[in-house]
């Protein structure tokens, strides 16, 4: 089931990204009948069942649901760190059979190497790419600038705040120019003020790069603020309960009646 939450009669401003409208029928990522079962103490534990989802180019999609419903497992399947027990995942029609440069991921913990500087950590994102050193250096500098860390190139992770570390991790996830960026609760451990600021930064980066983005979050307001669509998952085994289109212009006014209606629509599905 798909629901649409709209603000009427207002239309998006010309400068607002219209990923869903512009993408047309093309699909960059597809999950077809995907299931995942782990084995714990020799007993099967079904985590996901019959996940069907299509994501369009340049779309921003958020996954929400109760803890343990398989949100992060979906990201690990997409990035190729896990293999499905059933079904198929594909990027641009190509079956996912392991990690690839076409997919980048950022975790809740930034996972920067503490003995490397910011620029050295970001450079790791280009390790598997055959580029001249000067081009790599330029790409690293461009992405450090993109996430607003100019002046901190030589800093070590221990010298950065939590928000700055996450920005460095986002730069590392983007530097190889993947087709899809996966975000596994990247703002979950931050204080409220920093989290709100980085939500704005994520949107700015998304608008500038037009990269397909899939984000796991427990924060319904965050999901409504950021995404074109919110995918609501049922508890284990995780299944897609509904997909809610958030048809609101950007930048979104968190205090508006339309925004509140969108939040209520997501919360209503989660309560069930």
Describe the protein.
By secondary structure, the chain is an alpha/beta fold. The chain is 32% helix and 26% strand. The chain has eight helices and eleven strands. It has a seven-stranded mixed beta sheet, with helices on both faces. A four-stranded antiparallel beta sheet has the order 3-2-5-6. Helix 4 packs across helix 5 (162-174) and helix 7 (220-226) packs across helix 8 (257-271). It starts with a strand and ends with a helix. Residues 29-260 form the ABC transporter domain. Residues 1-20 are annotated as: Disordered.
Keywords summarizing the entry:
272 residues; alpha/beta; Rossmann fold; 2 domains; seven-stranded mixed beta sheet; four-stranded antiparallel beta sheet; 8 helices; globular; cell membrane; ATP-binding
Write a brief caption for the model.
With 272 residues, this protein is α/β, with parallel strands linked by helices. Helix content is 32%, strand content 26%.
């Amino acid at each position: 089931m798909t629901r649409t939450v709209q603000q009427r009669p207002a239309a998006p401003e010309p400068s607002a990204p219209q990923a869903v409208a512009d993408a047309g029928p093309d699909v960059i990522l597809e999950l077809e009948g995907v299931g995942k079962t782990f084995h714990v103490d020799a007993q099967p534990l079904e985590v996901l069942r019959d996940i069907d989802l299509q994501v369009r180019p340049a779309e921003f999609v958020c996954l929400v649901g109760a803890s343990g419903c398989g949100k992060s497992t979906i990201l690990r399947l997409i990035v190729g760190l896990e293999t499905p027990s059933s079904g198929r995942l594909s990027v641009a029609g190509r079956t996912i059979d392991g990690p690839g440069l076409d997919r980048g991921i950022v975790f809740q913990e930034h996972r920067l190497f503490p003995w490397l500087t910011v620029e050295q950590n970001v450079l790791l994102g280009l390790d598997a790419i055959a580029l001249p050193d000067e081009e790599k250096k330029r790409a690293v500098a461009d992405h450090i600038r993109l996430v607003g860390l100019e002046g901190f190139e030589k800093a070590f992770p221990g010298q950065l705040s939590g928000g700055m570390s996450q920005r460095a991790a986002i730069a590392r996830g983007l530097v190889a120019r993947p087709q899809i960026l996966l975000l596994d609760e990247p703002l979950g451990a931050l204080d409220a003020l920093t989290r709100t600021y980085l939500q704005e930064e994520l949107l700015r980066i998304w608008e500038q790069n037009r990269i397909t983005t899939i984000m796991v979050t427990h924060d319904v307001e965050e999901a409504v603020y950021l995404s074109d669509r919110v995918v609501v998952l049922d508890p284990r085994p995780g299944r897609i309960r509904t997909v809610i289109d958030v048809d609101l212009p950007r930048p979104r006014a968190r205090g508006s009646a339309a925004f509140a209606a969108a939040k209520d629509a997501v919360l209503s599905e989660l309560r069930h």
